Amino acid sequence: MPRLHVDWTRCDGHGSCVELLPELLTRDDWGYPVVRDSPEVPPGLLEHAEHAVDVCPVLALKLVETPVRAR
To answer: Measuring CA to CA, which residue among 6, 29, 8 is closest to residue 17?
Structure first.
């Protein structure tokens, strides 16, 4: 399952990702995005997460694959 990753060295706190993905993101006191509960993106929100990644003006938001653990 993909998860959201915010590159804090790039993020300027524009907030477009929070506006597009309020189910997974909120803002901190300075307006920067913070993951609400879990960075994992449920299948029903994947399309919205991809759109939020695409519109980030500083390319600070990414979707990364969660590594599969060996059993």
So the answer is: 6
Q: What is the pLDDT of residue 68?
A: 67
Enter the tokens of residue 55. Answer: 């519109």
For the segment 58-69, what is each residue's pLDDT rounded down to a tens digit?
999 999 987 766
What single string gives the DSSP state of each residue in 6-39?
E-TTT-----HHHHH-TTTEEE-TTS-EEESS-S
Buried b (16+ CB within 10 A) or exposed e, 33-64: beeeeebebeeeeeeebeebbeebeeebbeee
**Is the torsion defined by CA of 54, 60, 63, 65 positive or negative?**
positive
User: Is pTM, for the whole model, over 0.90?
Assistant: no
CA neighbours closer than 13 Å in the CB half-sphere of residue 55? 14
